[in-house]
């Protein structure tokens, strides 16, 4: 059984009974032989030629676009007291400005990083305010309460800002900021619920 293959599958149908839109002007395909430029057919041939151009002799129409490397962005930072700039990762630049960002589930490891950062910044200068930017779902009870206890034991005042959502214990830490320095953005959400516990009957 022989099957004939249609090799003109990619050719546009140019019957006189159809209409072809070229830009905003309606054209009839019957006018193709009048000498007017057929923009639809010209566009089709250019696209088809560029798709079929798979050999190395064909030159690329545009240069390759370089992608930004995946990872923590690096930003320029000017060291106080010096005139030099250096490239540091984004979190390091925020820490140097006394900004601590809580944007994930608070577990033991993350809590220890926050505690160490708070204690270090308080030891450098205990008169400047620390800023907590909170956008997270909360976390485990004991690590979150460790952050709360450390906030209250520091000499530096701690301001809290909600920039997205603060649920459960993240909302508790938001409310634990310095009086008069607790803020939530207009479209942020804060939700508190009782910590996990056990009931016996």
From TrEMBL:
<dbReference type="GO" id="GO:0009368">
    <property type="term" value="C:endopeptidase Clp complex"/>
</dbReference>
<dbReference type="InterPro" id="IPR029045">
    <property type="entry name" value="ClpP/crotonase-like_dom_sf"/>
</dbReference>
<dbReference type="GO" id="GO:0009532">
    <property type="term" value="C:plastid stroma"/>
</dbReference>
<dbReference type="GO" id="GO:0006515">
    <property type="term" value="P:protein quality control for misfolded or incompletely synthesized proteins"/>
</dbReference>
<dbReference type="GO" id="GO:0051117">
    <property type="term" value="F:ATPase binding"/>
</dbReference>
<protein>
    <recommendedName>
        <fullName>ATP-dependent Clp protease proteolytic subunit</fullName>
    </recommendedName>
</protein>
<dbReference type="Pfam" id="PF00574">
    <property type="entry name" value="CLP_protease"/>
</dbReference>
<dbReference type="InterPro" id="IPR023562">
    <property type="entry name" value="ClpP/TepA"/>
</dbReference>
<comment type="similarity">
    <text>Belongs to the peptidase S14 family.</text>
</comment>
<dbReference type="GO" id="GO:0004252">
    <property type="term" value="F:serine-type endopeptidase activity"/>
</dbReference>
<dbReference type="GO" id="GO:0004176">
    <property type="term" value="F:ATP-dependent peptidase activity"/>
</dbReference>
<dbReference type="InterPro" id="IPR001907">
    <property type="entry name" value="ClpP"/>
</dbReference>
């Amino acid at each position: 059984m022989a099957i004939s293959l249609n090799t003109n599958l990619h050719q546009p149908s140019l019957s006189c009974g159809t209409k072809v839109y070229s830009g905003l002007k309606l054209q009839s395909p019957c006018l193709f032989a009048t000498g007017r430029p057929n923009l639809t057919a010209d566009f089709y041939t250019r696209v088809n030629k560029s798709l079929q151009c798979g050999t190395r002799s064909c030159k690329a129409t545009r240069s390759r676009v370089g992608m930004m490397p995946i990872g923590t962005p690096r930003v320029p930072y000017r060291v106080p007291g010096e005139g030099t700039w250096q490239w540091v990762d984004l979190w390091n630049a925020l820490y140097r400005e006394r900004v601590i960002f809580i944007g994930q589930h608070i577990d033991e490891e993350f809590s220890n990083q926050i505690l160490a950062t708070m204690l270090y910044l308080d030891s450098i200068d205990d008169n400047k305010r620390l800023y907590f930017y909170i956008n997270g779902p909360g976390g485990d009870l004991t690590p979150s309460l460790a952050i709360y206890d450390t906030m209250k034991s520091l000499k530096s005042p701690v301001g809290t800002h909600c920039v997205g959502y603060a649920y459960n214990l993240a909302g508790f830490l938001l409310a634990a900021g310095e009086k008069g320095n607790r803020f939530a953005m207009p479209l942020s959400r804060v939700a508190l619920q009782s910590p996990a516990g056990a009931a016996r009957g």
